[in-house]
TrEMBL record:
<protein>
    <recommendedName>
        <fullName>F-box domain-containing protein</fullName>
    </recommendedName>
</protein>
<feature type="domain" description="F-box">
    <location>
        <begin position="10"/>
        <end position="56"/>
    </location>
</feature>
<dbReference type="InterPro" id="IPR036047">
    <property type="entry name" value="F-box-like_dom_sf"/>
</dbReference>
<dbReference type="InterPro" id="IPR015915">
    <property type="entry name" value="Kelch-typ_b-propeller"/>
</dbReference>
<dbReference type="InterPro" id="IPR001810">
    <property type="entry name" value="F-box_dom"/>
</dbReference>
<dbReference type="Pfam" id="PF25210">
    <property type="entry name" value="Kelch_FKB95"/>
</dbReference>
<dbReference type="InterPro" id="IPR050354">
    <property type="entry name" value="F-box/kelch-repeat_ARATH"/>
</dbReference>
<dbReference type="InterPro" id="IPR057499">
    <property type="entry name" value="Kelch_FKB95"/>
</dbReference>
<dbReference type="Pfam" id="PF00646">
    <property type="entry name" value="F-box"/>
</dbReference>
Amino acid sequence: MSNGKESYSPVNMLNLPDEILLNCLSRVSRLYYQTLFLVSKRFRSLIASLELYETRTLLDRTENCLYLCLSFSFGSDPRWFTLCRRPTRNPNPKTNSGWFTPCFKPYKKSSDKLMVSVQTHDCSPPLAWSRTAIGSKIYVIGTKRDHRVFFMDCRSHAWHEAPSMQIFRKWETVSVLDRKIYVVEGWTGPGYSDLMEVFDPKTQIWEHVPSPRAEILNQSLILRSLALDGKLYVYGSDKTMVYKPNENTWDVVENSETRPLIIGTFFPSCVIDNVMYCSVMLRVLQWYDSEGRLWRVFKGLEELPKLPKCRSRVKLVDYGGKIAVLWEKRASAIGFDKKIWCAVIAVDRRSDHEVYGKIEWCDVVLTVPRSCRLLQFLAVNV
């Protein structure tokens, strides 16, 4: 005690036991882990441990994290990136100090986030496979007669091989419904009995799904599949079929009811609370009004930059009930690189026919060579 005031000694966190440090780190957003990883070898070891994520789960501190898969050149292995906070201090104009400072601020609602490369363990699966996410894992589904399945645990960034599919597929569509992966064969025909199988990550078991009756499955091409409102819609070349897992039944639905929705399966889209959101040729975000059976434009997004017309240059994902939009844009007409932008939009449905969006942040998160291609944009929970 001095002058009636208590004096405190600063606590050196590195002197704390592992159990207490894990408890503290588990309460910190994962966006900061890339920075904390640089503090010391001990921090690096704790952040890379599965015990940290088990503690996060016990304390209900899990959160949605964004992952981006890129191809940098033809035939090269895909590379993975994740969103984190930029390790930056407010620069002192007199000393010009600081770790990193943004090179420019292209949008008034800019952020301090960026995509950083993820060092994955073991070999990454081939380039041309389907990818989807459930919980803390990213699954990669074999295609073109390769029925193997792999997954990356986003807690450790290690690749593991999962049980292979039961059937070799010529070409398939993949959907996630009720935390299960449904794989639908794209090439079918009369009497085809292996249309679909489903994988349960909890049991690690693939199960055959009984195919529709012959009079329903009377077509040779499956265009797309879509999980919506507890059902799986399978769009064929001449009809739309719907599978209800709870009843284990197939039906045919009128084209007028579901055909407008198929647009969202060909363009960048995501489903949030049974509403589909999509980026189409208008270069703006739209949402599907299932009651009016038409696409409506989002309101309140006038300040969102125009999105590319090319669908392969835009990605949408459900980011914990918000929309995360990612797109690429050339830095200049003559430059040899391009910028990857990301925006997070909160959704506000004010009536059956009005949906407003609020841009929480929007900024360039990565600069890549022009030859780079966007492969997948996913959200996991860790």
